[in-house]
Design a protein that fits this description.
The chain is of the alpha+beta class. It is 31% helix and 23% strand. This is MmcQ/YjbR family DNA-binding protein.
Length: 124
């Protein structure tokens, strides 16, 4: 699988540059795995594992959106760490937004999201 290297930058927003730099750095660190590549989803720059969505940067470029198990999403929201991801007005149960850039948290959650995507690969 080839990985696209060109990313579509989100519109510039206050705080978005730091979040985008952190997102790029942390997701680039995941590219050691040839199954992980950059792409887009719903207009957001994202990373995928063998086609499975892992994470993306919010369109405004300030928060990280991840696909995690529903119980983990619920726990992150209950703790005040995350907010529901609801692009159509209805929260998506396995998706959460982490609105503030935080290197350690984002790195940890990206690792969880990759593991979650890996367990959901077809044929597993």
């Amino acid at each position: 699988m080839t990985r696209p290297t060109k990313r579509t930058p989100p519109p510039a927003t206050a705080g978005g540059d730091a979040a985008r730099e952190l997102y790029d750095e942390l997701t680039d660190d995941l590219l050691y795995d040839p199954a992980i590549g950059h792409g887009t989803i719903m207009g957001h720059p994202c990373i995928r594992l063998a086609g499975q969505f892992v994470a993306c940067l919010e369109r405004n470029g300030t928060g990280l959106i991840l696909k995690l198990p529903a119980d983990r999403v619920t726990a992150l929201i209950a703790a005040g760490t995350g907010t529901p991801f609801a692009p159509t007005g209805h929260p998506m149960r396995e998706w959460v937004t982490i609105p503030e850039p935080d290197r350690a948290l984002w790195q940890s959650l990206l690792t969880e999201a990759v593991a979650f995507a890996r367990q959901n690969l077809p044929g597993r």
